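hey can u check if this looks right to u? its 440 residues, i copy pasted from the old doc so theres a chance i mangled smth
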Amino acid sequence: MANQKSLDKLQKLIHDTGQTSNQKLTNNFTGITLKFADLSLCDLNDINFTEAILKDAYLLCANLKRTNFSNSDLSHANLSGAIMWFANLNHVNLKSADLRGVSLISANLKGANLENANLWRSEITDAQLMQANFTKANLNRANLRNTNLTDANFSYAQLDEANISEANLTNANFSYANLTDVNLKDSNLEGANLFKINLVRGKLNRANLEGANLEGANLEGANLSDTNLNDAKLMNANLNHVNFRGVKINYATKLDDKWYLVWDIVNHGAYGRNLNGVDLEYADLKGANMGNANLADANFRYTNFRYANFSNANLTNSNLTNTNLTDVNLIKANLSNSNMQGTNLSNTLLFNAVLTGALLNEAKLLKAQLCDAELLNAKLKMANLMDANLKNAKLLKADLRETNLEGAELEGAIFGENLGITEEMKQELIKRGAIFADEY
């Protein structure tokens, strides 16, 4: 129950407005009007404010546990820091209200109007928010875990870094909303409208997006692993670096051809396939099996291939600039004349790989295994080969200007006619097992 001091303050405010109430008997303030009233820090739990007019009121850090505000007007009110556990805010008007840091655990906000409200860092877990209106609201870093948000409207809302995991968002409207770095793990978004939504780096692991509209959405870097995209619409969506592993799609899923192929490769591999000239730049193909595949003239700019298998693959003339090829199997792969400028090949297996004429300027090859690799005419200007294994590798006519060979294994490596190798450097490399020949 509310404490007496707070009730006395409330009674005085009511008296000053010329109103009467039966507060002493029932704590019932139904229909009371207290515009601009200051009830900050008051203990008003279990009070009945049904249909009350509290527009522009101050309730900062107030104790409002189990308080009944159903159908009341709290528009523009300041409730920042208030404790409102189990409060009844059914169809309440909180338009443009200040709710920063408010705690609404297990509260009932069904049909509430929170348009343009500030809910930054609010705690709204386990709450009922069916049909609530959050249009243009600020929910950055808010916690909405395990809430019921069926048919809720979040259009144009800000939800950066919000936690909406395990929530029911069936038929919710997020059109044009911003959800950068949001957590939607295990949430149900069946039939939700996510048109033109910003979900950059969003976590949607195991989410249900069946029938959802994601047309034109920005999902760059999002994790969609194990999500359900049956019947979903993703045409014209930005799916750069999206994780498609374990994603469910069906014949009715609308996905641009490029991203359908990415999904297919991630989940079924591309071993031995002919993908000559394919364009998969900015894709996330981590761990994909593309051994023995024909990938000549392919575009893989900025693609993530970490842990992928390219053994015996044909990658001649391919564009791999700024691609992530760390920890990749490229044994016996043909990378002749490929562009790998700025590419990360650290810890990559390149035994017997053919890199004749490859452009590797500024590439990272730390601890790369290049034993018996062919690097004739390769461009390695400013490349980092620290601790790489170049045993028996062929580097004739390779451009080695400003190349870092510190700690590299050079036993049997063949050099000759190299740019960037001074006589002093030549003698040092010979001491480390390198072989220099004018012709090869």
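The longest helix spans residues 4-16.
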